[in-house]
Amino acid sequence: MSVASTVRVERYATGGRALLAIAVVVVLALISGPFWLSSEAMRLVVEFVCLLAMAQMWNLLVGYGGLVSIGQQAYIGIGGYALFVLANQLGLNPFLSVPLAGLVAALFALPTSRVLFGLSGGYFAVATWVVAEVYRLLVANISALGSGAGVSLTAMLAFDKGTREAITFWLAVALLLATTGGVYALLRSRLGLALTALRDSDVAAESQGVDVARIKLLVYVIAAFGTGCAGALYFLNALRISPDAAFGMDWIPLLFFTVIIGGIGTIEGPILGTLLYFTLRQLFADYGTWYLIALGLLAIVIMIRFPRGIYGELAARFGWRFFPVQRILRDP
Asked: In which region does residue 18 sit, left (phi positive, over 0), alpha (psi from -120 to 50) or beta (all else)?
């Protein structure tokens, strides 16, 4: 009797369906957001989604692809500046320019990967930061892009405030579904199996026939696309961009906190980490940079006490899987 006939494969874990129903309700509430949320609340939600999308892409890159990057801000900046070029200088619709900016970031990722993929480990990580700095310096020296002072998104003057905020908000909902849902669909596919094997051991994965180099390139380009879209939407929401804001190192501690504290190598981890970050930021908003100290202390405690991250510990203890991508063998 074959193994396939004596076991069954289960995808859903404890609470998965109930949590999925909650997610549907949340998404429907978000879609109706422009009709009941204030302008300030909508801007905050857009910022939250942008950071979450960046975190999901960084988690895909690091947590599954094994490509430790400390220069992912390169694609945040490329996506942001691509939006401004497409909308301000080429006259394209600024909202339609958001996914196009992601494509521009993905195109930049192809030649960039040629430079980076010849390196490994710490050399790769440092090189990603160097590449991001090179892109920052290049943009800062282009007068048509405002040089170091930056530039405003004048294309948005064609839209009234209400229309601009509503469409930006709906773009954020679309980005949330595309990045989180897209990563979920990817990890449940055959490619996801190869990616999970790669996360555990690239040597073992290659010995089983996985094309490690091709998959790493694919993951790198996908992460660049998603990060570029998130960067474009972030600066569409801000209406202004500058090299330091777009390519600054400030992005990396945020990605580290949201992914590692939440739970690297899980879809749920970045969601929890981003929620935690925004909660602390709002609680300590009146204390200046004290919230950064609180984040640092919390990060130290969690990394020592829960090395798998908060969600990693919850999943291990209670079997909670909001996005069940693992395949569980059960007796028939």
From this structure: alpha
By the 10 Å C-beta count (0-12 exposed, 13-18 middle, 19+ buried), 127 is classed as: buried
Q: Are residues 112 and 244 in the same domain?
A: yes
In a 13 Å sphere around the CA of 235, the CA atoms on its Cβ side amount to 36
Do 143 and 265 fall into the same domain?
Answer: no
pLDDT per residue of the chain (332 residues) written in tens, 0 to 9: 444 456 665 555 555 566 667 778 888 899 999 999 999 999 999 999 999 999 999 999 998 888 899 999 999 999 999 999 999 999 999 999 999 999 999 999 999 999 999 888 889 999 999 999 999 999 999 998 988 889 999 999 999 999 999 999 999 999 999 999 999 888 888 887 788 777 777 777 777 777 888 899 999 999 999 999 999 999 999 999 999 999 998 899 899 889 989 988 888 899 999 999 998 888 887 777 777 777 778 888 888 888 888 888 887 787 777 777 666 555 55
Domain tally for the chain? 2
Give the E-state strand segments of 23-80 in sequence order: none
107 plus 134 within the same structural domain: yes
What is the value of pTM for the model shown?
0.91
